[in-house]
Amino acid sequence: xxxxxxxxxxxxxxVLMAAASLLAGCGPSPExxxxxxxxxxxxxxxxxxxxxSDVVFRxxxxxxxxxxPKGEDGRKQIWIDPESWREMASDEAAKELxxxxxxxxxxxxxxxxNTRGDxxxxxxxxxxxxxxxFVDEYVxxxxxxxxxxxxx
Length: 152
Ligand SMILES: [Zn+2]
What we know:
The protein has helices at about 5-25, 35-45, 80-90, 90-110, 135-140, 140-150, and strands at about 55, 65-70, 75-80. By secondary structure, the chain is mainly alpha-helical. It has a single domain, classed as 2-Layer Sandwich (Zincin-like). It has a three-stranded mixed beta sheet with strand order 1-3-2. A hairpin with an 8-residue loop joins strand 2 and strand 3 (about 75-80). Zinc ion (ZN) binds near residues 101 and 112.
């Protein structure tokens, strides 16, 4: 082996190790029901980091979704009520809003914020009023709400 080749090998190995530790550093990948995958990916695109919470169906009494801070495996879990999800059917905006709200709790550690702006609308999708009453405002001002959510 020439010295030249040896020098080139070390950085390559370092890159490999960095990639491996990046993958390993996240622990086991979270359990995400395939129903929720598109919304989780969209959230990751906006957030710029991978979601680490499980996102699964669970029957909830009186809630559409819930961020459970510590699941059995130590990961946060987002529970989505299956009946509520069915009711939203093809309302993609409502589904995205519900998912982003719960991901806001679990992934961004955002509590509820019921502040209203001068226009009377909630300033954040982290309002605790329930997503279905808020879908129109969200659709009309999606960019504004995402900027607020991700604090950019
Ligand atoms: Zn909430």
